[in-house]
Give the backbone structure.
Amino acid sequence: MAEVHHIHNQDPNAGAEQRKAIWKTFWILLILTAVEFLIAFTVPHGLLKVTIFIVMTIVKAFYIVGEFMHLKHETKSLIWSILVPVIFVAWLILALLLEGNAIFDAVFD
Amino acid sequence: MAANVTTPGAIEPKMWMGGIEPMKASYGKLMMWFFLISDTFTFSALLVAYGTARFSFPAFSGKAEDFTFSNMYWPIPEKVYEAVPFLHGVTLPLVFVGIMTFILIASSVTMVLAVEAGHRMDRESVEKYMLWTILGGFTFLGCQAWEWSHFIHGTDTGSVMKVLQDGVWVNKTVFGANLTENQYGPPAFADFFFFITGFHGTHVFSGVILNILIFFRSATGFYDKRGSYEMVEKVGLYWHFVDLVWVFVFTFFYLV
């Protein structure tokens, strides 16, 4: 039953390109987090700051899911199976933030 | 059906007819992906609840320098999380949680390097990188234990809160936080802190257990005998997901 195929790769350069991509992703994530810190203490609180943070978080999520979890290199049907539910979740978050705002208005205004 | 597929020329095989992998991923990998999607729903539910509660509470309206803890408004996170182990009394906002973020991202890198080594059937490298990943996981859990302990015990001076006791409003000095009292802000803030970081910590803990299992099985030559290191990849997906969730918790709980 089990298909046993030993692909013992003796070539030391095998996977070198992937390893390069992994470290590149690591530096991108590290720099993005460092920039987030910088923004946390320099930009005044407000909509602009929140927007910057959310955009940067999505960029980080893209690199983690796309490169580390390899989703970027999977088939289109798998990518969409994961992405579509997440889009609905994003809408739920937005909808309930607006709802929270409405509760605030009803109680405190 | 199956008989038709195996007869060449009888029926032209189609993408979703069965007998082929339309997503070009093994059963185990696909199920891990769909489990992670369901886990995403659970974590989103927690973050959605947090967002709703936060937006329905008044925010602190003055200048950040004038901020004091009160249960009348939501706290500014960088004023809450400013302690670092061994540096008692030093104000270092968000530094410790930044270190924790770095640890988790680094352990994600060692995990993906273990997966890459598994593709090459390089057992020694898999073992090495799994050990680094396990170390990263334990370090993160240790940091979180300290963070919780500090949050529960509170600051040296505590903060004075107006609380309702036996039907009367009284001023009371509150130290630290639990599910009903919170020196940093409204009790709901502490509740969400415990639930969200606690649920994430539980995931990190079970991830470390899985990583140890993977290390043990590769070290004893199980995957060499099987001829595939795909199990490393599946557990790797879970571990990266835990890292991903932390990225969101970091933004929505500590930064915004």
Observations:
- Chain A touches chain B through 57 residues (CB under 8 Å).
- Chain A has two domains: 16-73, 75-109.
- The radius of gyration of chain A is 21 Å.
- The helical segments of chain A are 16-42, 47-68, 76-108.
